[in-house]
Amino acid sequence: MKKRLLSGLVGLMVAQPALSIDLMETYEKALSYDSGIAAAQASFEAQQAASDVTRSVLLPQVGAFGEANYIDVEGPNQDNSYREFAYGVQLTQPLFRADAWFDYDASKFQTESARADYNLAQQQLILDVATAYFNVLRARDTVITTRAAEAAIQRQYEQAQERFDVGLIAITEVYEARATYDDTRSQRIVAENQLNIAQEQVARLTGEFPEEIENLRQNFPLGRPEPMDPSAWEATALDQNWSVQSALYDLNVSEANLKSAKAGHSPTLDLTASYGKTKTDGLEDPSAFRRKGTAPPPRA
Q: Mean pLDDT across the stretch 206-220?
């Protein structure tokens, strides 16, 4: 829907000199400049990473272990010391952890909610850029109109002054013409100020003050919406409304967190497998203990 909206807006534009910018260029500048878009994108990517971390709890866990001991045996008729080494690997695969599964579901819903917020930020930026862009065009047309009106009224005022100078009209008509001219001048000043405000709004979105922007096409075709059924458009709006989608995902997150809390007392089942070896160094021959009249220390 975002691409269709952009393509439709671009279709309104007509080629202008190279120094002017069109609506698409204005949007691209705003997309790279707007901090709200960057924050929404960062939040979405962070939530994606958090979802992967939550999923890792359900994946097989492989670990290594190692242990070293030094044993010194001293006593009547025995004196010996040796070292023991144990090492190996261990695999743990969770088979049933209800709370972890619900936590993973909640993280996926949070990711979709963050995606909806990111799409909403993009959609809002499109609307803001288009509104600011068209406000500049409207204000510029108003300035052109008021300048033309000012020039015409100024000529009427000058003509009234000339007729008064030769005695054809009364001074009151000159005053009326001057008042009309002053009013037109004030309208032109207001229009120029509104144009500056509109251009500043574009600059706030893009970070650049627009010296010249492209105008609308004069032959843009206007067609009727398809379908013509208002209820169909209402259903489409509900399906594609990112605010509604984000709220629905947040509701799913709350439900999944509730299920996770309830499953906290449920039993868990894991499959564990390990493989290891034990090695002993420095142990005297067991017969040496027998010669001394005692038994060797037990092996671990």
A: 82
| Tally of domains in the chain | 1
Global pTM?
A: 0.69
| Residue 250 within any structural domain of the chain | yes
> The domain spanning residue 42 has which CATH number?
1.20.1600.10
- Look up the domain containing 191 and give its range: 26-55+84-211+225-279
DSSP string, the chain: -HHHHHHHHHTTB----TTSB-HHHHHHHHHHH-HHHHHHHHHHHHHHHHHHHHHHTTS-EEEEEEEEEEEEEEETTEEEEEEEEEEEEEEEEEEE-HHHHHHHHHHHHHHHHHHHHHHHHHHHHHHHHHHHHHHHHHHHHHHHHHHHHHHHHHHHHHHHHHHHHTTSS-HHHHHHHHHHHHHHHHHHHHHHHHHHHHHHHHHHHHSS--S-B--B-TT------SS--HHHHHHHHHHT-HHHHHHHHHHHHHHHHHHHHHGGGS--EEEEEEEEEEEEESPPPHHHHHHHTSPPPPP-
Q: Which of 91-95, 134-138, 214-218 has the lowest mean pLDDT?
A: 214-218
- Asked if residue 73 belongs to a domain, the reply is no
Residue 12, pLDDT score:
45
